[in-house]
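Box 3.1. Reading complex inputs
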Amino acid sequence: MTPGSAAERETVDVLVVGSGAAGVNAAYPLAEAGLAVRLLDFGNRDEVYAPLVPDRSFAEIRRSDPRQDRYFLGDRLEGVTFGTVSPGAQLTPPRQHVVRDTERLTPVLTDSFPPLESLGAGGLAATWGAGCPPFTAPDLAGFPITHADLAPCYETVATRIGISGARDDLLPFFGELEAMQPPPALDDNARRVLAEYERRRAQAGRHGFYLGHPRLALLTRELRGRAATTYRDMEFWSDAGRSVYRPQWTLDELRGFSGFAYRDGLLVERFRESAEGLVEVEARRRDGERERHRARALVLAAGTLGSARIVLRSLDRYDVRVPVVCNPHTYAPMVNLRHLGKAPVEARHSLAQLCFAWSPRGPAGSATVGHLFTYRSLLGFKLVREAPLAHREGMEIIRLLMASFAIAVIQHADEPTDAKFCALRHGTDGGPDVLEIRYALSPAERRSCDEAERAILASFRRLGCACIRRAHPGDAASAHQAGTLPMSVEERELTTTPEGRLRGTRSVYVADGAVFPRLPSKGLTFTLMANAQRVGAGLRDRLRS
Amino acid sequence: MSGVAPEAPAAAVPGDGAALAGECARIVRYLAGVAPSPRLLERYRAADGELFREPAGTRDRVLLDWVRRHAWSLPLLDAATALAAPDSRLRRKVLLTLALLETEPALADRFSPPELPLPFLAARLAWAGLRGALEAAAGLVLYFLLVGGRRLDREASRAERAATRP
């Protein structure tokens, strides 16, 4: 590879690939230490809708903005979807840039696992639900690192991004977090569910059911120039005030470090380690031209599947199977019968209102964890679409029930098996390589999910929440894919060391979900950020020495 | 939201501007009991061009043509297709119109959850459910009379398969 422009010729200390939750948090300790860090990113952004969304509440906008259809439905009606849709199509129009170009540039071959991938600035966390449940010691079973390794990184990241939550019945499942801000106010519907739980706490505990405030990357106090939430119920549509954490906020902070540089419009394809001990990276620009970058070390944070593509291509491991895991996901729409007929309060946030854990062995060990969302700002027609009713009657029923409506999102742990894998295939006719993904849960795994869901929904029934149905949106729907280059103490090809270094390389590190060998029943993003901080800090110390 | 306002059929040329305007007016009257504003008509026309570029299949043509000529049947066929043909173009057009209506500021209150005493809420839920069930029952009879039961469904399925074949 021959470097071209002056910027490309300059060798930096570290190249980081990807500006998602992992990339920016791995880059932070490196750039903060004064190292020369260059972050390479494709960096798609929303330039159409963000300027259109007024800085007002959802209810005000609904009553007053004549142009709301542009961002609520999309200029090409991309917010109105019919029938079976790909996971990305469920995103609101202002968030769909996150998945733009992925079908074309990072194609996948699968019959059951259409993954959500991102080439956007901020990655998938530019549209995430901001759930931040930390992994506890039992959650890290099977990892070659301990909770003690991660605990200081959780604190560092919490200080950087802002986490709100409470020390309530879920504390045994989350652990302490000193940097935690107070929890956001609950809406009336969620408050009533929580009050009923508190009244029946002993009974719920006997069934292994625990309820409390979620840990959210949502500010309730100002932090680093970002505002506390103003309860405008617009979190799915805009980032006004920046109260919900997005990796772009850390990217903006990184730009303040003199040694940091951001290059977007680049799709990194492969790396190579040179005899002089440098890593050379080849990336394709939007115009199709290639450019090369050199560094003393490389940190891959292109997403679980993106990083796997780069590694498999670079090491010429086409057609070799690597594992993949992803939290199985179930939605359970419910009606809180004790809240029927109540008018909704307009001041609310749109993220998870409550979090629950089911742990039949008591408040210890690993639990099945989920979140409870109340529903307002995603518009009623999307619910009517799912109902086997005439639209007029469907809308009437949804409207009457909406204030007491809730959706429990239950996610399950996932372990690697022979039936869950991906492999990189050569592209045909000059097209890009294709990642083939096969993913199937075993009957025993499905039974285990079913048992947990039944127990959780029975507990909600005892709290007055009647489940309407259980919806299984597909194996990839949680978008929590992980485990393609798992951390391991065993010296195996296509794995990473506990420090995040890719085996068989000297200076290539992986900092994203690819290194998680398994997934407990919790969203991985907070732990992914903490681990990225750990990998970045470790690399910083190595480069300094 | 009130009932259907019977209306003279518009010129039934698929994709034709006047026909689309008539179709939009019928669906809006069915869903919201009002006449569509000029802007809503324009949005519907643009959305139809964006989302329904492909020619309708046999079953969809039969249903849409029938509704154009017999506006009273729209609630019945909407209810019937919810069960028998949820992916039908008729149902998609009604959903599209519902989405457009929901983003009309003037209609915001119609889509907002009301505060109601429990007995009133129960009565309205029961009425909506009963009306939906009756419409579905009558609509299913009409649907099967119109599309010839399984024959046209099979044709539609074949056409869909052919359209999606690489």
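In summary: The longest helix of chain A spans residues 443-462.
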